[in-house]
Design goal:
By secondary structure, the chain is of the alpha+beta class. The protein has four helices and six strands, in the order E-H-E-H-E-E-E-H-E-H. The longest helix has 10 residues. The relative contact order is 0.24.
Amino acid sequence: MNYWLMKSEPDVFSIDDLKKKKKSGWDGVRNYQARNYMRDDMKIGDVVLFYHSSCEIPGIAGLAKVSKTSHPDPSQFDPKSEYYDEKATKDNPRWFMVEVEFVEKFENVVTLAMLKAHKGLEGMPVVQKGSRLSINPVTANEFKIIIGMK
């Protein structure tokens, strides 16, 4: 099993939205490294730290798990979608997504400030200056520390 941190802006899609839907495709990712993580590395049952970004108090709001492995992101084929990619074809898709399933909403957000201040988490990409990738791997030890902070 692997651990991941996946970022979403809560005004676009929050942990509460996932809780309500139960499962959702993680669509709209348009970064090649994040796509590669979903396409090549994420497996059913992998645990996801659901991170709220670009908000007043960014941080980890809860847990999800990968419930469906990589498949083409349909938004790339829809000319009306903001994620449309004219170079993508059904025979040669460029963008992939996984499905995630709600597991738990934390009582309190584990804030970015808390993550930055905690010994053992300094290597996490989310605490690094200038790191903007929306999907990052998390080590088992980092995951254990974060679960202890919730």
